[in-house]
Design brief:
The chain has 235 residues and is of the alpha/beta class. It is 43% helix and 8% strand. The protein has a single domain, classed as Creatininase (Rossmann fold). Strands 2-1-3-4 form a four-stranded parallel beta sheet, with helices on both faces. It is globular and about 50 Å long. The relative contact order is 0.17.
Length: 235
């Protein structure tokens, strides 16, 4: 019988004994445009899938419901983008992890690059407070940073019914570092009319399967290293 590993499957008495020896995996995503071919929930879907794989792969990990809103102001010119801004993301993560003191530690699996700065600030403060927390985000090509081949392939594997490949078109394919100053000043629409940073054409579910496997292995290895190091340090 498969163990219950998701908080939406558990009650507090079931958690009372287990929480102190369990890590809580929290998917952190966003709700924002991902080109004309992908749904608005891509970052949340990917973060939730990876955190779920981590929880299924380690007996000491429990899966929390996803944080579905993030700092997405650079996508504000596209309908459907819902952003709570950097300060709110930082505050949300601070209070969320503080409230999880019953657990042995918290792993924040972030699927949205726009959350990187507030996530880093929150983690630094939480660690100064003595809390056990690990941030992790998937890696990617600097010329394929948003709604390109990587994310499209992964979504073809995770939620193929949500992908509209007939609408997939290349966007701006320059390296992210080249366009970042414009993005910060004027938003994504200033460099990409369709909201894509990369080229989604040619994406396949098979590619997505390989990418997910590599990301999952990297996340698992990161948690194993962190868990071993913090156990050795006594917290």
């Amino acid at each position: 019988m498969r163990r219950p590993y998701r908080l939406d499957q558990l009650t507090w008495p079931q958690l009372e004994a287990a929480a102190g020896r369990s890590l809580l995996a929290v998917p952190v995503g966003s709700t924002e445009q991902h080109g004309p071919h992908l749904p608005l929930t891509v970052d949340t879907d990917i973060a939730a899938a990876l955190a779920g794989r981590l929880a299924r792969g380690r007996e000491d990990v429990l899966l929390a419901p996803a944080v579905s809103y993030g700092s997405s102001g650079e996508h504000a010119a596209f309908p459907g983008t819902l952003s709570i801004g950097q300060e709110a993301v930082e505050s949300l993560l601070l209070e969320l992890v503080r409230s999880a003191d019953a657990f042995a530690g918290v792993v924040l699996v972030s699927g949205h690059g726009g959350n990187a700065a507030p996530l880093a600030r929150a983690v630094a403060r939480l660690r100064r407070e003595g809390r056990r927390v690990l941030p992790w985000s998937p890696s990617g090509s600097p010329t394929d940073s948003h709604a390109g081949r990587t994310e499209t392939s992964v979504m073809l594997e995770l939620r193929p019914e949500s992908v509209r490949m007939h609408r997939a078109r290349p966007g701006d394919v320059r390296a992210l570092a080249q366009v970042l100053p414009i993005l910060r000043a004027s938003g994504v629409r200033a460099v990409s009319g369709n909201g894509v940073l990369g080229d989604p054409t040619g994406a396949t579910a098979a590619q997505g399967r390989r990418i997910l496997a590599a990301w999952s292995a990297d996340l698992l290895a990161a948690v194993e290293r962190w868990s071993a190091a913090t156990d050795h340090a006594g917290g």
